[in-house]
Write a structure and sequence with these properties.
The chain is mainly α. It has helices at residues 42-63, 74-104, 110-124, 144-157, 190-195, 198-210, 224-237, 247-297, 299-310, 312-325, 329-343, 347-357, 368-377, 389-398, 400-412, and strands at 136-137, 164-168, 173-178, 183-189.
């Protein structure tokens, strides 16, 4: 810890392993852009970071102390829908052009152009991915207590239950629609699930199921193209290392590379702009999902979950170490409880540090520290759905085979 004092309020500054110190009292200096790279241009990335930091603060101030309610499309959503419609219209126009060329002017000269047009359309088509390869689906017969808990949480929050419930080995959890039919899937990362006490497990489920009712533009059919197409175009126009050698190839590379660099970076900036428009709506959706978590699990558990996420680095390390030494999830949870107790005095610092490290124009989630503060700013609520230690242990027993089977992989990766 630095002995320097804050130039604003004269409190003693604090610091982390990376980045400039900040003031824990007034948070002067917290907006230092640590490791924030989007475009590769330093001054642009710093500007983008500080813009995102300011917007996070403004949005938090707008929601503090009051209910958000189910987000609608709003001006940002309408703009993204309009961009998506234009993009889809452009793809249809390209398809029509390819069809006209193939029908009326097919020749050795036009055939490569037709194939190029079809290739571009194929790259730009919206993708609706299915379940990830890492997703291990669960069956009700395997985990009846967990499925019953999910259904209780869904009923209490007024959200639909998932079609698919599964686990993976990430210190994370997610909820997403999959496939063209947009069927609902919830995935619980085994290390994260094992690290949480019973009440925070309920809050986690309440938050994740909230994603099926929070209007997140990242998964909307009408907003998805605007948020993904320009990234695909930027990747398509980014040139890799030269694959051909010789004078002619060197001249072509010398001429084409600067042009393609400008095109790729311009498309990336458009993608960043689209993401910046959608990020405010996505973060509002995350705050709304936290509201639903409070409704189900109560304020204390939801705040505790946000604090666990703010201190996730420490929790993840001890859980993965425990996984290396034993397959029993009770050992993992015991290690997490001990780490949580030892880190409790530093939670305010972890909250502040998350505000720095979780800020980005590309971030779809608000910083965990702001999420915890927002819960604290509202009237305190008690839990509607409880999970006893006995039920929590039963769920771990139902997942014991998955813990055992994945212990080696979970313990091998340590951050």
């Amino acid at each position: 810890m630095s002995a320097a004092t804050c130039p604003s309020c004269h409190a003693t500054l604090t610091s982390a392993d990376s980045g400039e110190p900040w003031c824990p009292a007034c948070e002067w200096g917290l907006d230092d852009p640590v490791g924030h790279e989007v475009t590769g241009a330093g001054w642009i990335d710093r500007l983008l970071y500080r813009s995102a930091f300011r917007l996070n603060r403004v949005q938090f101030g707008r929601f503090a102390g009051r209910a958000i309610g189910r987000p609608g499309y709003g001006a940002a959503g309408v703009f993204l829908v309009a961009v998506s419609v234009v993009l889809l219209g452009g793809e249809l126009a390209l398809l029509a052009l390819a069809g006209w060329l193939a029908y009326a002017h097919l020749s050795l000269l036009t055939a490569p152009l037709i194939l190029l047009i079809l290739g571009v359309v194929w790259v730009l088509l919206p993708r609706f991915p299915g379940l990830p390869d890492e997703f291990t689906p669960l069956d009700r017969s395997q985990a009846p207590t967990l499925f019953a808990l999910v259904e209780r949480v869904a009923a209490a929050s007024g959200t639909p239950a998932p079609h698919f419930l599964g686990v993976d080995t990430a210190f994370n959890a997610y909820a997403t629609p999959v496939g063209l039919r947009r069927r609902r899937a919830v995935c619980l990362g085994l290390p994260l699930w094992a690290a949480l006490p019973p009440e925070q497990r309920v809050a986690l489920l309440g938050h994740k199921l909230g994603h099926f009712a929070n209007g997140d533009p990242r998964v909307g059919l009408l907003t998805f193209p605007a948020l993904n197409t320009f990234q695909n175009l930027a990747d398509l126009t980014r040139m890799g290392p030269p694959e051909l050698w010789g004078c002619f190839a060197a001249v072509v590379d010398l001429v084409a590379r600067p042009v393609m660099w400008v095109i790729s970076r311009s498309l990336l900036l458009v993608h960043v702009a689209m993401t910046l428009v959608g990020a405010r709506q996505s973060q509002r959706a995350e705050y709304h999902a936290d509201e639903l978590a409070v409704l189900v699990a109560g304020s204390s558990a939801t705040r505790g979950l946000a604090d666990s996420l703010a201190s996730r680095d420490g929790l993840e390390v001890v859980v993965r170490r425990a996984a290396r030494t034993g397959h029993d999830a009770r050992d993992w949870r015991r290690a997490a409880e001990e780490a949580r107790a030892s880190m409790a005095p530093r939670v305010p610092r972890f909250r502040q540090l998350s505000i720095r490290t979780d800020t980005s124009v590309l971030a779809s989630h608000p910083p965990a520290g702001l999420r915890a503060r927002l819960v604290e700013s509202r009237p305190w609520q008690e839990a509607r759905v409880g999970l006893s230690e006995y039920e929590s242990d039963r769920i771990d027993s139902e997942l014991a085979e998955y813990y055992r089977r994945n212990a080696r992989e979970i313990g091998w990766v340590e951050h």
